[in-house]
Amino acid sequence: MAKNDNYFAGLDIGGTTVKSVLVDEAGELVGEMVEVRSHVKDGYEATFQQLDQALDQLTGAIGVSRSQVRGIGMDVPAPSSDGVIWAQANLAADWVGTNVRDLYSRRLGGVPVYMTNDGNAAALGEYAVRRKHIGALLLLAPGTGLGGGLVLPGGRAYEGANGLALEVGHISVPHREENGELPRCSCGLHGCLEAWVSLVALRRRVAVELSKPEHVNHPLNDGSSVEEKAFRLRDFAQQGDELAIRIFRQQGNIFGYGIADLVRVFDPGLVVIGGGLAESSFRDQYLEWVGEGFRERAWAVYRNSPVDPGKVTTEFEWATGGDSSAAIGVAFSAREMFG
C-alpha cells in the first residue's frame, strides 16, 4: 500500500457492537472487519470513543495513518435526518436532537461524515457487493422487527424528505388472528406487516399454537420461555417439524403478500431478503412460500414482462453481505461522496 493512498471507513453502530471496515479509492475492501463494543446507551460521547478505537484498529491493522481516512460513513439504529437523531430507539437520551454527524466530523478535524439509518446502510451494503447490478434494490430484513431500505440506480439510498422513508414493517396487511382480530404491532398500531414477519411475531404465534390441545405434547412445550421457544423454532423447521413448518409458511406467505404492495409502489426489479433465515437450511423453501404470497397479491406485470413473458420483472435473492453489510454500505457511500 502506498503511503499516500486514501481510505474510507464504514462504521455500523449497533446496540451491542460497532462493526467497521475500510475501503480504498478503488472501492476494494482493505483488511478485515473490526468489531468493538457499543456504548450507545452510555451516550454519544462514549460511543465516539468506541468509533475512535475502531478507526485506530482498522488503520493500525494495515499500517496506515488515521489521517489517510478521507471520509467516514456511519449508520445509527434510529430515525435521523441530516445528521440529527429524531428518536431515542435503543440509544441514550442525549442522542435525540443532536447532530452527531457534524459533532463526530469536528472531532476528527473536519473529516466529512455521511450518516444514515441501519436499514438504509444494510441495503447499500447489498448493493455494493453486487458489482454487476446497476438497477434499484429493495432490501427487507426480518429480525426482532422488520427493517428495510431502497437503493436507487446509481447507488444512493432513498431516505425521504426527513430520513423517515422505508418503514416497511408498518404497511398494513389484511391478515387476522384465528379469533378475527388484527395483531397488535410493537409500534402501537394493529395489522402491520411486522406483526406477522419478525421475531416478536414468531413469539406470539408460538404461544398461540402451543396453547392448543393438539400441541400439548409438542417438544417445545417444555416449560422454557416463549422467547427461547421462538428462538428454537428455526431448528425444528430445519428438522421438518410440522408445526414449525406451518408457522414459517404462514409468515412467508404474508411476507410475500406485503412485498407485492411494496413492489407495486417502487418497482425495484430486485428484492433482497436478509435476516437470520438467510442462513437456514430451509431458506429455499421459505423463499417459495414468500413467492406464493407474492403471486397472490402482485399484478402479472410485476411477475413477468407482458412483452417477453420469459422475462421475470421482479427477482428475489437472499442477502449475501453478512454481518459487515451495513458497514460496507456506508463505507462505499463515503467513497462515492467524498472520494
Write the layout of secondary structure elements.
Blueprint: E1 7-13, E2 17-24, E3 29-37, H1 44-62, E4 69-76, E5 80-81, E6 84-85, H2 100-107, E7 113-117, H3 118-129, E8 137-142, E9 146-152, E10 156-157, H4 199-210, H5 226-238, H6 242-266, E11 270-273, H7 283-297, E12 315-318, H8 325-338
Parallel strand pairs: 1-4, 4-7, 8-11, 11-12
Antiparallel strand pairs: 1-2, 2-3, 5-6, 8-9, 9-10
Helix pairs in contact: 3-8, 4-5, 4-6, 5-6, 6-7
Q: How would you explain this protein's 3D organization?
A:
With 339 residues, the chain is of the alpha/beta class. The protein has 2 domains: 7-130 and 323-338, Nucleotidyltransferase, domain 5 (2-Layer Sandwich); 137-319, ATPase, nucleotide binding domain (Nucleotidyltransferase, domain 5, 2-Layer Sandwich). 35% of the residues lie in helices and 19% in strands. The protein has 8 helices and 12 strands. The protein has helices at residues 44-62, 100-107, 118-129, 199-210, 226-238, 242-266, 283-297, 325-338; strands at residues 7-13, 17-24, 29-37, 69-76, 80-81, 84-85, 113-117, 137-142, 146-152, 156-157, 270-273, 315-318. β9 and β10 (156-157) form a beta hairpin. The relative contact order is 0.15. The model has no long low-confidence stretch (mean pLDDT 94).
